[in-house]
Write a structure and sequence with these properties.
By secondary structure, the protein is mainly alpha-helical. The chain has one domain. Helix content is 86%, strand content 0%. The chain is built from 16 helices and no strands. Helix 3 packs antiparallel against helix 10. The two termini are 36 Å apart. The relative contact order is 0.11. It is a multi-pass membrane protein. It is found in: Cell membrane. Pfam families: MatE.
Length: 465
């Protein structure tokens, strides 16, 4: 029991997630730095394309995310066989959806670039990047689904080690293919695509090896034919609102990026550079929120409802303190950091103008993520979905267009709307958590179950006498 409690402790779960996500962020930063040596136009293409990839990735990782919550709950309630079955189905469905998305991106890069409002002078670069990086996007789905399943068994170190190796391979291959080292031709953005596919393939192989041994009964290839209709419906019940929630956020960001594209390549590049710096500042907060979700799901599955309720607030307070401190550092040193990415004074000026707004944006994002993940952990995914649909469509997208484009406030107006959206959703999920609706229902269910068992025990004793 002591070993189990330690395995699902907040910091035990969080620090490997932090290192893993930090390395992923570092990988994105290295990509951005290397691409910036090609041109700022190439950076703009990478920025908007990665928003598209993020949006599409949620479509085939959502099922794995819902499965991950149920895995942690089943581990908490000692139903290990069901946890294993859920994990297998989560990976299988994510793989199928990932392959479909990758095929579409590979063959329809041109029309997709048109939908994103990518300017004509950037089309040749975007076709290369969307076709080849997007064509291998199913590997990202496999990494996400395998990593999610492994993490929710309490093993957050395995995905972390994999992340280290992926990053090392990717950075070395990036340098080799982009700049034509060791006698190879200079491939530019195509080099990043090749590097991404190779490093991600290595990651899939490593995670799959860990995944096979994550449960008491080893997982074999023939086990991927397993299908349990009852468990599948339970995954769907949690996953579809979770998917719409995630998709709403990512697609709203994609639409906002299309607004930025309409403002010009300079605004788009400035947002891409600043987003890279923001990601570093938010990484530990994100790790705390994700670790909190795993811990709360485990406690909820174990019937420790009071501990689960308190755990959400502890996660939130720690996350807010960390994110606020990091954003203050970015505010103080942001001008110098932007200089590492570009020498264009207009792009730097745009980025600097947004640094103060980030002091509000990131804590609001932590509030929304921390309490939203807590609700997701106990299966209350429909509420977070409803708040996302309403707030993102009206404030995140509608107001961004109104203030940023129609009224001419530009990037500053869009950022203010992003802050308002995160704050509104954060307050709504906080009020929902304080209402304890799902926890009260679970408490009643546990009480009725205990009463039923107690009554059965009495009848058994009476019959024995």
């Amino acid at each position: 029991m002591k070993k189990e409690r330690q395995g699902f402790g907040l910091w035990v779960l969080a620090w490997p997630i932090f290192i893993e996500v930090f390395l992923q962020t570092l990988l994105g930063t290295v990509d951005t730095l290397m691409v910036s040596r090609i041109s700022d136009d190439a950076v703009a293409v990478v920025g908007i394309s990665n928003q598209l990839f993020g949006a599409l990735t949620t479509l085939f990782t959502t099922f794995a995310g819902g499965a991950g919550i149920l895995i942690a709950q089943r581990m908490g309630s000692k139903r290990f066989s069901e946890a294993r079955t859920i994990a297998i189905m989560g990976v299988s469905v994510s793989l199928i959806l990932g392959i479909v998305v990758s095929i579409i991106l590979f063959f329809y890069a041109g029309p997709i670039a048109g939908i994103l409002n990518i300017s004509p002078e950037l089309l040749s670069l975007s076709n290369i990047y969307i076709s080849y990086v997007g064509g291998g996007l199913f590997l990202v789905g496999m990494i996400a689904s395998l990593g999610t399943a492994i993490r929710n068994t309490g093993n957050t170190r395995g995905p972390m080690y994999t992340g280290v190796i992926i990053n090392v391979i990717h950075i070395i291959l990036n340098y080799t293919f982009i700049f034509g080292m060791f006698g190879l031709p200079q491939l530019g953005l195509a080099g990043i695509a090749i590097s991404s596919i190779i490093s991600r393939l290595v990651g899939v192989i490593m995670l799959y090896t860990m995944f096979r041994g994550s449960f008491e009964i080893k997982i074999r290839l023939r086990d991927f034919r397993i299908f349990n209709g009852k468990l599948f419906k339970e995954i769907i019940r949690i996953a579809w609102p979770l998917g719409i929630n995630s998709s709403c956020w990512v697609f709203s960001q994609l639409i906002v990026y299309s607004f930025l594209a309409a403002l010009g390549a300079e605004a788009l590049a400035a947002r891409t550079y600043l987003n890279t710096l923001e990601s570093f500042c938010f990484t530990l907060g994100y790790a705390i929120a994700l670790a909190g979700q795993i811990q709360i799901a485990h406690l909820f599955g174990a019937g420790k409802l009071k501990e689960a309720y308190r755990s959400a607030y502890r996660t939130l307070y720690i996350g807010l303190a960390i994110v606020s401190a990091n954003m203050l550092l970015l505010f103080l040193f942001g001008r110098n950091l932007l200089g590492y990415f570009t020498s264009d004074p207009r792009i730097i000026a745009i980025g600097i103008s947004l640094l103060a707004l980030n002091l509000l944006l990131q804590p609001c994002k932590m509030l929304n993520m921390g309490m939203g993940n807590a609700l997701n952990a106990i299966g209350d995914t429909r509420y977070t979905m409803y708040t996302s649909i309403v707030s993102m469509s009206i404030i995140g997208v509608g107001c961004s267009y109104w203030f940023g484009i129609s009224l001419g406030w530009g990037l500053t107006g869009i950022y203010c709307c992003m802050i308002a959206d995160e704050f509104v959703r954060g307050m709504l999920v906080l009020m929902r958590w304080r209402g304890r609706k799902v926890i009260r229902q679970a408490d009643i269910g546990l009480s009725e179950g205990n009463a039923s068992l107690h009554g059965a025990g009495k009848r058994s004793t009476s019959l024995t006498i």
